[in-house]
Amino acid sequence: MTNSDQRSDEDAIDVQGGYSSGIAVIDPEDSFTDPGIEPHRPRKTDLFPEAEKRSARTVVAWMVLSAIGAVAAIVAYVVFPIDGHDISTVRPNNLFLGLGIALSLLALGIGAVHWARQLMVDEETIDIRHPQRGSEEAQAGALEVLDAANKESGFGRRTLIRRSLIGAAVLTPLPGIVMLRDLAPLATQGGDPAELLRHTMWTAGTRLTRDPDGTPIKASDVQIGSAVHVIPEGLTNETEDWLNKKAKAVVLVVRLEEEDLIEAEEKKSWSYHGIVAYSKICTHVGCPVALVEQHTHHLLCPCHQSTFDVADGAKVIFGPANRALPQLPIAVDDEGYLVAQSDFHEPVGPSFPERAL
Amino acid sequence: MKRTAKKTGRRSPLASVALLGIGLLFTGGAYVVVSQTANATSASASASASTASDLVDEGQKLFSANCATCHGTSLEGTGSGPSLVGVGAAAVSFQVGTGRMPMANQGAQAPAKAVQFTDEQISALAAYVAANGGGPEIPDESLLQGNGDAAHGAELFRTNCAMCHNVSGAGGALTEGKYAPALNTVTPQHIYEAMVTGPQNMPVFSDTNLTSTDKQDIITYLLYVRENASPGGIDLGNLGPVAEGLFLWIFGLGIIVAFTVWLASKSN
């Protein structure tokens, strides 16, 4: 309490000069002089009765225009009905209804402002700003109350109680934060949301099918330079929770010249004659990465320009993403269709707290 | 003239000429009718065969004069241009028919510009390239009419094309100065050819990936978007939230600022 007493004393000294200088250095010779208030200049409407009459007519004209706008909006609503089966009828309805309402409101506002500016009493007055600092008595009174409260409660004296109170107060909101975990959509299906993020629909032997038609893809159908957008076999709009499943499982299949592929030793068996499959979910914040360039083999994320090199393990070559896109190991089944060897070997998409980096 | 001759009973000096003319006309006309009816199929086939080989020769001349510097004298490619063996007539029709080739200068991407060859010259070049290695052919007219399934086309477009070309085909940026061009003025034939051949950095969408019917549907969708006004109001070029935000920041806020200035100003 003694500290705050001292501070208020210093403030009091500062205020003696009539203003609080803060830390600014004020040079009296260079200081800004108050220009005062410019003299009152009467308006045309105050000087000439014709001008006043003209302004009054203008205000009335705006009000009439506003009324016309309101009526026009109602007329437009009747004349341009929205036909539920024809989306092109929405546009004239919205356009003319909106124009009518806008005219009505805008003209009302402009008329009112014009009235105030031109015709209402034009007196300039000065409101002096009241001092923000309280009186000495009020400040002393407030300090007395605080001091008394501190003495009566023993808040300053009983340090153990005070610290335990602060500690408990810090922990109180934590259950709420922990419960946020249940907001994860996957948690509604039971189980650990982190565990569900680690797995996708892909399993050993799942055929790669075209998005959105769901037709399987023969390896011989994928030409060099092709890009095929792929979903796992059996994923349709009727699949339970299909959007979340699709959001994790979408894959981009491209075929490069085999000699262009740079593959890590342990991933050599994951491609098939230059056909590689990568998760389409950006490792930055999960946008679908699908802007693939045929000759540079660059795969660009449209959200934040993360760029991956499809020829080199989809490693990051530009942008904020931190990890390469997960690769889906693929093979070919007896009938020549592309199948997954297994699920992805790492979680797809952006990082989450439980993910080991 | 004959009538004059009968009246006077004397042969006009022009009568023999007229007779000769009528005779020639008759035999010529008869020959035309006979050859058209009897030899219609074989005659046209042999005619197109001779013009086809003429076309290839013509194309080779044009190629040597205009393309061989970069693509090699026998389409094998050089350091400045890729090999054209197997790219097909569709690739030539697209690249030359949109003015992308010949390139004005080496750059990140060959832009579409004024077409430098006549349709006949482009056909000749296409015939020459197709005759040396085959490849995708120029699509059939029936696929380009925009009479497919627009809804299915839209679904395919969103999955395969929209990430680069924008959901309404307004185009978009790629890496290092490259871009996906806007599709709203591209002819259906060139759209089809681009899908089949994968020009520049666009991936190839061969018939084994998107069937010709799929491509017809995609063209139908693009033509539908082109021909139907946006029901929501001014589309601002369909460029998306950045263009729309900029418009609001400049014009929306500008109007508000102008009103505020007017509100706070002193009246005269």
Could you please describe the fold and organization of this structure?
The complex is a heterodimer of chains A (357) and B (268). Chain A is 36% helix and 10% strand. With 357 residues, chain A is α+β, with helices and mostly antiparallel strands. Chain A has 3 domains: 28 residues, no CATH class; 122 residues; 147 residues, Rieske [2Fe-2S] iron-sulphur domain (Rieske Iron-sulfur Protein). In chain A, the strands form 3 sheets. In chain A, strands 1-2-3-4 form a 4-stranded antiparallel beta sheet. A 4-stranded antiparallel beta sheet of chain A has the order 5-6-7-8, with no helix packed on it. In chain A, a hairpin with a 5-residue loop joins strand 9 and strand 10. The longest helix of chain A has 31 residues. Chain B has a two-stranded antiparallel sheet. In chain B, helix 3 crosses helix 6, helix 5 packs across helix 9 and helix 7 packs across helix 10. Classes of the chains: A alpha+beta (357), B mainly alpha (268).
Secondary-structure map:
The complex is a heterodimer of chains A (357) and B (268).
Chain A lengths: L1 H14 L28 H4 L1 H31 L10 H29 L17 H18 L5 H13 L2 H6 L13 H6 L9 E3 L16 E6 L9 H8 L1 E5 L19 E5 L11 E2 L5 E3 L6 E3 L5 E4 L11 E3 L5 E3 L17
Antiparallel strand pairs in A: 1-2, 2-3, 3-4, 5-6, 6-7, 7-8, 9-10
Helix pairs in contact in A: 3-4
Chain B lengths: L1 H7 L6 H24 L1 H27 L1 H4 L16 H10 L21 H13 L18 H11 L1 H4 L6 E2 L5 E2 L7 H10 L14 H16 L13 H24 L4
Antiparallel strand pairs in B: 1-2
List keywords for this structure.
heterodimer; A: 357 residues; alpha+beta; Rieske Iron-sulfur Protein; 4-stranded antiparallel sheet; 9 helices; B: 268 residues; mainly alpha; two-stranded antiparallel ribbon; 11 helices; 2 strands; 1% strand
